[in-house]
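Lab meeting, item 3. Inverse folding demo.
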């Protein structure tokens, strides 16, 4: 199936690692030119090199989207390599926080700024491009915890829980513009960091640390799901590629859980 992404320009925040790199690879494989965002110079070079070796089109762009000044720097860097952005994937976020007992107003505000406001900054910056083209795609990357929050790092779950609402509101605001807005909420993802963390846990418990054993350990102790498998960053990337595709033009204002059924909720 041709997803209609050839020639589109896609900015993926935080694409220098983890899930963002999988999204960048998937969109590049579908013919998009991907802007691989990093916070400092050189940070995104490895992912850019990997995509180019696979004959994809990729460029590194830099800016600290946690600040207005850094977002302006990112916009300037993007403008130095392309005259437009067709797709914004607000992937960057930090699964960090404190506890209900130790958290304070500062930690709550920080989490909201990192996980929500940074996405709004980037989206605001490039919506004019999409409006001018009368075609665009915006995706906010949330988490299964937006629907099924845990009892730890409450600031993070509350912030990520705001993103489905942001997506719906923005989709309504952009009615009749040719721009769609959706929210994707993955479950646990087999990033290198996750695999490394659970490998260490398994080793401390005297359990096997081969790949299938670690995957089973994660599913049994962290987030079981009916598929009995973990998704990879590239799996998430392929799903996001469909969400932003021309084929999915009628998918708008949706909260899409990509968690293997881990979140056992009807709505």
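The presenter then showed the designed sequence:
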């Amino acid at each position: 199936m041709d997803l209609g992404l050839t020639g589109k320009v896609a900015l993926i925040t935080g694409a220098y690692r983890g899930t963002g790199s999988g999204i960048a690879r998937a969109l590049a494989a579908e013919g998009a030119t991907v802007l691989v965002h990093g916070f400092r110079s050189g940070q995104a070079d490895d992912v850019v090199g990997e995509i180019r070796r696979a004959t994809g089109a990729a460029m590194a762009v830099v800016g600290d989207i946690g600040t207005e000044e850094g977002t302006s720097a990112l916009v300037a860097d993007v403008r130095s390599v392309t005259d437009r952005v067709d797709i914004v994937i607000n992937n960057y976020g930090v699964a960090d926080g404190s506890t209900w007992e130790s958290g304070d107003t500062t930690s709550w505000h920080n989490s909201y700024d990192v996980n929500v406001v940074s996405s709004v900054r980037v989206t605001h910056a490039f919506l004019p491009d999409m409006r001018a083209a009368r075609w665009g795609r915006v995706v906010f990357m949330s988490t299964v915890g937006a629907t099924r929050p845990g009892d730890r790092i409450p600031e993070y779950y509350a912030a990520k829980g705001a993103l489905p609402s942001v997506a719906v509101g923005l989709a309504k605001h952009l009615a009749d513009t040719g721009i769609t807005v959706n929210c994707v909420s993955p479950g646990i993802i087999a990033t290198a960091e996750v695999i490394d963390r659970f490998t260490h846990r398994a080793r401390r418990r005297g359990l096997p640390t081969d790949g299938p054993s670690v995957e089973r350990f994660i599913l049994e102790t962290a987030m079981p799901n009916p598929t009995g498998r973990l998704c990879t960053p590239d799996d998430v990337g392929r799903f996001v590629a469909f969400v932003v595709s021309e084929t999915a033009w009628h998918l708008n204002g949706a909260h899409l859980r990509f968690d293997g059924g881990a979140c056992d909720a009807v709505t």
